[in-house]
Amino acid sequence: xxxxxxxxxxxxxxxxxxxxxxxxxxxxxxxxxxxxxxxxxxxxxxxxxxxxxxxxxxxxxxxxxxxxxxxxxxxxxxxxxxxxxxxxxxxxxxxxxxxxxxxxxxxxxxxxxxxxxxxxxxxxxxxxxxxxxxxxxxxxxxxxxxxxxxxxxxxxxxxxxxxxxxxxxxxxxxxxxxxxxxxxxxxxxxxxxxxxxxxxxxxxxxxxxxxxxxxxxxxxxxxxxxxxxxxxxxxxxxxxxxxxxxxxxxxxxxxxxxxxxxxxxxxxxxxxxxxxxxxxxxxxxxxxxxxxxxxxxxxxxxxxxxxxxxxxxxxxxxxxxxxxxxxxxxxxxxxxxxxxxxxxxxxxxxxxxxxxxxxxxxxxxxxxxxxxxxxxxxxxxxxxxxxxxxxxxxxxxxxxxxxxxxxxxxx
Amino acid sequence: xxxxxxxxxxxxxxxxxxxxxxxxxxxxxxxxxxxxxxxxxxxxxxxxxxxxxxxxxxxxxxxxxxxxxxxxxxxxxxxxxxxxxxxxxxxxxxxxxxxxxxxxxxxxxxxxxxxxxxxxxxxxxxxxxxxxxxxxxxxxxxxxxxxxxxxxxxxxxxxxxxxxxxxxxxxxxxxxxxxxxxxxxxxxxxxxxxxxxxxxxxxxxxxxxxxxxxxxxxxxxxxxxxxxxxxxxxxxxxxxxxxxxxxxxxxxxxxxxxxxxxxxxxxxxxxxxxxxxxxxxxxxxxxxxxxxxxxxxxxxxxxxxxxxxxxxxxxxxxxxxxxxxxxxxxxxxxxxxxxxxxxxxxxxxxxxxxxxxxxxxxxxxxx
Lengths: 411, 367
Prior knowledge:
The complex is a heterodimer of chains A (411) and B (367).
Chain A: H1 2-19, E1 49-52, H2 63-77, H3 82-85, E2 86-89, H4 96-108, E3 113-116, H5 122-131, E4 136-140, E5 150-155, H6 157-175, E6 179-184, H7 191-207, E7 212-217, H8 224-236, E8 242-246, H9 251-259, E9 262-264, E10 266-267, E11 282-284, H10 286-299, H11 306-310, E12 314-317, E13 324-326, H12 337-349, E14 359-363, E15 369-373, E16 376-377, E17 383-385, H13 394-400, E18 408-410
Parallel strand pairs in A: 1-2, 1-3, 3-4, 4-5, 5-12, 6-7, 6-8, 7-18, 8-9, 10-11
Antiparallel strand pairs in A: 11-13, 14-15, 16-17
Chain B: E1 3-7, H1 13-38, H2 42-51, H3 60-86, H4 94-112, H5 118-147, H6 151-171, E2 200-202, E3 208-210, H7 211-229, H8 231-241, H9 243-248, H10 253-279, H11 290-300, H12 305-328, H13 334-356, E4 357-361
Antiparallel strand pairs in B: 1-4, 2-3
């Protein structure tokens, strides 16, 4: 009998562990549901927004949080009530069947537009867009679309990275340390990470041509333990004085703070996480896109007109739209940083200059910016853009940029 | 005061039902208290959960299709596991067997789907999945029979081996890796819906009944008959009760163990074939935890084939309904849904304990 009891207990434990594997207590914080603005348009009252998240909608930091924050902010701006007009299926893995099932749930709830925030939702969203032609589908970070009710959206994070690079370069000049570290989710495997690293490195070199950016590759989009460990390694073994990052948590900034060096965060302003180390972060203002998309969805009449109303099946906003930016500069920044970033930002916003072109910027310690024609070269010595040439195509930045520029070194 | 745990013989059915019902009610009350703390109306939440959001849903037929898609693998895996459990062979490897079956089925779909008719491809997919998963299970059974290894640990650990094989296939872009979509820069599993797909039977309106639902019911009946009315079924029961007795009665215990475990794992492979043959794509979360949940279902059903179908149907309502209900309440995320499921299952298992045992105080002065 004892045996049976023991087995029962073991089984119960195994089972309950399996059953509650992902079951964590829900956060009690509800998203800020401000009262809808008084001047809400009449059509807005029954407009419903659907969303599919990769993590919990109650997250308080990270990728899903950034999107959820963007969606609710945009809804509040437009006088929509997130408490009643937003339906979300969260913690949906990148599994076509489960994404399709989530879409069915959202369509069943009457969603007029459905946002999917994770790359792996791509095929399910494409299929559902064909099936539910009266619903709009909008997919973050993807590349698929149609001419009617299915688009994708992403942003020119490399522009914000370049500005953060300027802050890092200024700091390296001030401290006299030419080694800059970068904890990255992936390296050249993905254009998303490679373009971010390259944009940052070009920004650093515009200020300090002697600087080298050492990149440590995590091999995962989020890995808090190694995010910290790799930052420590970059500081201790590579002597890096500024740590930049492309990963979810603020661990690299905290590691920089603990080691008494400096850092540039990502996704959100990380100054509160590392007040003595953080310079500025490349950030996303997702609400800029979400507002644009929701307005288009409410005004386009029927779902089939959505893509034509948006003007493009692939929204790719940057500094000009305010979709990406740098967070307010902290007091840790070197003198002249603000002026230099302001000047370069103006050049990018006006369309006068862009990062991956045959013209590079030389930024003096006092913040004055000079344009110089010079080829864009990768770190194997291949010329990507000839001196004076135009910027690479957007398709390269989002799809085929699988190289590092000169001055970047894998650590 | 001290307590004794005493075996309870023949707990009457009404008492069992009351105990289970009480467990569910207590779990819902606990969940309700949490919902109130979150500022959610528990009645509204539970109504949505138990109706799975079908009320006022313009595409309610989709709810049923998706519900059945969850139910088929769970019911079949539970039936398969009950075969091994009846013999006291603790097959905790449902996940791994399911994954290998899924990979085998997808392999066949990619390799033969283009040249063969749909029906033939589907049959080959089922056979390949059954054989692969069956052998994976047989391997553990052979080790147990030959060397007396612990099958609980072996099957448990092999789950992770299978999972990492699947993850490797899902993340490795290479010329040989036909499982991935060649057109995508990032590694993404390729779809084979056009190569092979289980057909649905139109049932009027937009609802169509996937043929796998009927096949699963048929298999359930076959397994019931097999266990109840065949010699092999009887042998399983005897080996489960006492291997020594079975041996004394002249049964070839080793052969029975090998045969039954193969059958158990093969049926899990078949469930995987049904799943990928309907989904038309692999995924690293293809099992949807049926290998684990199936153990709970088999256990709660006390390995009774008919009851397994009822319990898995209820668990799927819980699972699917939780997701749907969480979608419309902004405070409730799917972690809460998972937690509520965990509480219900835990308490039902506790109730199950009280149907078999009772706790009596030890009299003072007694031993």
